[in-house]
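Hi C.,

You asked whether I'd gotten around to modeling the 213-residue construct. I have! Everything is below, sequence then structure, no commentary in between.
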Amino acid sequence: MAGPAGRIVGVDFNEAAVQRARVVVSALELGNVKVIAGDLHELDPAALGGPFDLAYTRLFLMHQPDPVRTLRRIAGLLRPGGWLVAQEALRSPPPRSHPDLEALSGYWDLVYEVLDGAGVPAGAVEDLPRSARQAGLEVAGVSGCFLIMDPELGFEVHAASLAAARERATRLGIAARRVDDLVRDIRAAADGAFEWVSSGFVLDLTLRKPAAP
């Protein structure tokens, strides 16, 4: 989230991710950036330092069991007239590569098994524009795209994302062996004759908190 005078606050539930981000912030001497570990729904807004001019989410809303509640929470951190930009992956189509790697589809199916098991409603990303309106936000723009990556980077991004979900998946009864086999197959593909790897199809959503009357 970005506030006045270039002040930026990052929030993530994953303590390890926050620690990595803090290392980068320190190394780059970014004095205007603060990174906080915690659940966005539980953090004290005053501690975050809002209201903010801009909020940005990426692959975050797709994990929320109640997207309307989460969007209302974010809206409450914005000043009137503030913006929310969200980039969230649709369930279909899945990530792809050329030539096709079957493990990518298996990985994407597993990701959505985890989301289903966590109570995320079907069509949560597809329904985000409607959820945003229910949360009191205006929909200023909707578009989408595949992100195309170099195979070495792309396969590692997908493998690392799946590896990070391993603990959550096993808690939901998904066999660790299944996760590990997919991670292995995706990482092994980085040494193959692949020309490109894509993300899933990403919904780009630009939202605005109505200005004060």
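If it helps when you're writing up: The helical segments are 15-27, 45-48, 67-77, 102-117, 128-134, 151-164, 166-171, 176-188.

Thanks,
B.
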